[in-house]
Amino acid sequence: MASSVDTLTIDCADPRRLAEFWCEMLGYELADIDDDGAEIRDPSDLGWSLLFQVVPEAKSVKNRAHLDLRPPESMRKEVDRALALGATELRLVEEGGSFWTVMLDPEGNEFCVLRGPEDGWSPAAGE
């Protein structure tokens, strides 16, 4: 029998700030917070929990893993919403007939905002 993913853990300096940002981005809720970290969870219990854990060192290189977010409407609307919450827009990528925006959360962790339905994406097309 295979293992299953329970929690995605993200090292950080300010778990409260990242938990607040990602709760707003994902529609999650704060599950637990203390001096060592903060956990957020999907209220529908469909998505993974995210744990933001305090570490002493600062982020120094590009993430080897990141979240790809599929917006409910358009990429631009979701990028603008992320910017208003404290994210930074890094670059627009156009590749393989598709496009997405690479962004940084408030501590510099990369994530991507993909095309939404208003941008021509559809789940049936599998793009």
Strand order of the largest sheet: 1-4-3-2
- Estimated structural class: alpha/beta
Topology pattern, helix = H, strand = E: EHEEEEHEEE
- Give the helix proportion (percent range): 10-25%
Strand content: 35-45%
Which stretches are poorly predicted, pLDDT < 50 over at least 5 residues?
none
What's the number of extended β-strand segments?
A: 8
The major pleated sheet works out as: 4 strands, mixed
**First-residue to last-residue Cα separation:** 31 Å
Total helical elements = 2
Describe what this molecule looks like in 3D:
- The chain is of the alpha/beta class.
- It is built from two helices and eight strands.
- It has helices at residues 15-26, 75-85; strands spanning 7-12, 29-34, 37-41, 49-54, 67-69, 88-95, 98-104, 110-113.
- Strands 1-4-3-2 form a four-stranded mixed β-sheet, with helices on one face. It has a four-stranded mixed β-sheet with strand order 5-8-7-6, with helices on one face.
- Strand 2 (29-34) and strand 3 form a beta hairpin.
- The longest helix is centred in the N-terminal third of the chain and has 12 residues, at 15-26.
- It is globular.
- The mean pLDDT is 95.
How are the SSEs placed, and which strands pair?
Elements: E1 7-12, H1 15-26, E2 29-34, E3 37-41, E4 49-54, E5 67-69, H2 75-85, E6 88-95, E7 98-104, E8 110-113
Parallel strand pairs: 1-4, 5-8
Antiparallel strand pairs: 2-3, 3-4, 6-7, 7-8
